[in-house]
Amino acid sequence: MAIAKSQLVKIIVAVLVLISSTAGAFWVGNNSADWKLTEMFTSEPEVEPVPVAKYYPLEKFVISIPGDKYPHYMLLEMSLKSHNPNMQTVLVESDALLRNTMMKMFSRKTFIELNSLDQLDSLQAEALILMIKVLSDNQLPSDIDEVLFTRMVIQ
């Protein structure tokens, strides 16, 4: 009888071990599946892509520049850099304003000021400030990041 009891205890222990390991595996499997489903269905906030900068060339300018003996002429081609995808429309609408602003800015400069290559960065910065101001004053988007002079010829 003692042998039968010890075998019965061994069988019961083996069954309990088998049941507990099966239950444990089932629990871990279900929890990991829940975790995977939760991970799959929880939405992370979508990050909007940063707009790519675009360059918008303006029509060339021919500007009269005062000189000591006689007037000079400057041919200026420029482009505007912007991250605003709607900037092309704004530039078409405000073309006359921007051209007038650039004409005024450059007509106040002397031949010597403009003929110095060291002045390009400061002229571009000044043009940027003036363009942003004139667009803002006229309630237009002023999302210009940079003004680039692509060609500048002074005679």
UniProtKB/TrEMBL annotation:
Signal sequence annotation: 1-25
Keywords: Cell inner membrane, Cell membrane, Cell projection, Chemotaxis, Cilium, Flagellar rotation, Flagellum, Membrane, Signal, Transmembrane, Transmembrane helix
InterPro entries: FliL
Membrane topology: Single-pass membrane protein
A Pfam family of this chain: FliL
Localization (cell): Cell inner membrane; Cell membrane
Coarse class of the protein's main subcellular location: membrane
rRNA-binding as UniProt keyword: no
Functional summary from the UniProt entry: Controls the rotational direction of flagella during chemotaxis.
Family from the record: Belongs to the FliL family.
Protein's name in the database: Flagellar protein FliL
